[in-house]
């Protein structure tokens, strides 16, 4: 049975399904914030299926998408157990067909999801690899981590870290104690990159400010400073078993190698506190593989209804 709810009703029912999740993109806070900022131009279509699956969908131009933002949600999916999601999809499709929608577009679907498995069996569905998320399984110590890297990457990691420490002996790394203010450093540094400058619109800045406020217990801004100047900032989601490196900004012109260095320090700190996985999230940048990242694919699925 499919039931459509208003956003407030939907979030009230959904929260118990997401409060234990280590994936912020599947949380009610994420979707509320997105609807208030980047998602203002979409119409919510929030469905509950059989009281055990939640489908946060949105509509634009008679097409249906997953809520949360393709550009900013590294994972997207309906929410429920894998078995229940498989059972829910035929009912969702029938409901959308009755409403005479043209197309359902599912972005950022993890390969491990039963959503991906379900639609693979349907011949008329278009499925394409959308991006990869290099992930590192972390050992118990930094030395063990280094030993797992191939010889070339191990040598380069040590060389780059030593080179940066020699060039900038006054460097300091610290966790922000005032992220709502320090996020301005992240914005400034991101805007040094032309692609990130284009991405970081005023509305996107509003969304990021909302993240550090609403996810205060699970987000961390890590700052690298050199003689009082903030050279690099990383923005991560941190949970007991996993760190998600969500974004970063760095001044490569004045502090060459600072971005790589702070990512290495972030990884080392994760190992030191017993975190099991370091997720670089979407993007196939070379440095992620130099740290030993292994591909984890997400997919785009398009269904003509």
How does this structure look, described?
The chain has 305 residues and is of the alpha+beta class. The chain folds into two domains: 2-131 and 297-304, Aminopeptidase, CATH 3.40.630.30; 135-279, 3-Layer(aba) Sandwich (Aminopeptidase). Helix content is 39%, strand content 28%. It has eleven helices and 13 strands. The chain has helices at residues 7-18, 28-36, 82-98, 114-120, 142-148, 151-167, 179-190, 194-199, 202-214, 258-272, 286-290, and strands at 2-5, 43-49, 53-60, 63-66, 103-110, 126-132, 135-137, 171-175, 219-226, 229-238, 242-250, 277-279, 297-304. The strands form two sheets. It has a seven-stranded mixed sheet with strand order 1-2-3-4-5-13-6. A six-stranded mixed sheet has the order 7-12-11-10-9-8, with helices on both faces. Helix 2 packs antiparallel against helix 9, helix 6 (151-167) crosses helix 10 and helix 7 (179-190) packs antiparallel against helix 9 (202-214). It starts with a strand and ends with a strand.
